[in-house]
Model the fold of this input.
Amino acid sequence: MNISITSPIESVAEFLAHAEALELESVESYEQLADSMEVHNNPEIAKLFRKLAHFGEKHAQEVTELAKGMTLPEISPWDFKWSTPDSPENASMDEAHYLMDTHQALEIALINEIQGQQFYASVAATTSNDEVRKLASEFAGEEAEHVALLKQWQANLGNQDALPLDDLDPPNIPE
Amino acid sequence: MTGQPPAIPLKAKDYKSEIKPVWCPGCGHFAVLSALTKALAYLALPREQTALISGIGCSSRLPAYTEVYGFHGVHGRALAVASGLKAARPDLTVLVAGGDGDGFSIGGNHFLHACRRNMDMTYIVMDNEVYGMTKGQASPTTSPDWAQSKLTPHGTGIPSFNPAAIALASGASFVARGFSGDPKSMTQLLVEAIQHKGFSFLQVLSPCTTFRPEQKNWKKEVHEFSGETTDDCVAAAQHIQIDDGMGAGIIYRRELPVWQPVVDPTHTVAELTRGFAL
Done:
């Protein structure tokens, strides 16, 4: 899915309010997925999702630093300007499965990071505010680094662990 | 929880508890939890003035995952418990959550009468058309030809329950349908449902990734509800019949008399006890 924005973001405060929500929701979702994988005895993928949550945490801290001394606008949850029904880095969480392998987990993460990058790039492309454009371009660049890193991880993985995990004693077999 | 208002406005995460959900990764209920906590934060509802009551099932675990008062009740009886609570404590915001099996099968009778009683509470049914906690049996909303359960190897052959139509016919004053795959809209629906004065019913299509993996396609199938929101129950009934069951939005909203028993603070415990004497 190609992410765009519903209307231009024209102030730094509004941009940071969007960025903060996006990054915090990303962290929360990855943490939630990690918790869920731990509960379902898939520790390797849980560890991977924790690492991905850390990406978002660093970005969220950056946003908090930038927003110091500013009053960010309160935006209703349904009024965020991303075009997706959920925040851009949160969009493919429903593709998760307790038996997923590293390939599948990285695929989810890659989609999320690409969507994050597209969102920030879209903000930069549509705003008339120079400062917003500069910040959004920087953020898009950082997301692009995450995308490149994930692609590198995928390449390093090769065909290893390519088959879906099998559970010989599934907890959820239909009766 | 204390009665003091928080110095800093609560965020959605402040309404989440420390307990890790045991739902399967990819379950739609995660999005319902997230939307509900966002709605509570948006409405700035004090945690100590809010109660979430549930029955039994995967979705009924919701109270454990929220930081408001909760009661994980008996199968199908969430609405009965919630009605009692609202009768005794009209000052509380009462929310009720459960699944399609809990709410429409064993709890079906309570559902009908909660709708017609029109007490001021919100009922969220997380509908995945299956009993997930007991490993995948057909529920009232399962389509008649779903043949993936050993209990119904040829499907149930029984037309599925239409929650919106039943709620409307039973007298609910707010009927809506949401989708867990659209958290933005679902949060708005939850806010509107909670703000509605009277019994608000919100059916949330929430895929079961484990027993109904085909429901991932709901992302492509769910659409905006075909009719306009109306306060005319005949028009709403027609809209529901025309819709394919996948339309999301507020279907019906009307201000109707809210039933709330008058609490007499002068009653003594002894008088109440006498009232129950056989």
User: Anything to note?
Assistant: The mean pLDDT of chain A is 89. Residues 56 and 110 of chain A are 13 Å apart (CA to CA). The domain at 12-157 of chain A is CATH 1.20.1260.10 (Ferritin). The radius of gyration of chain A is 17 Å.
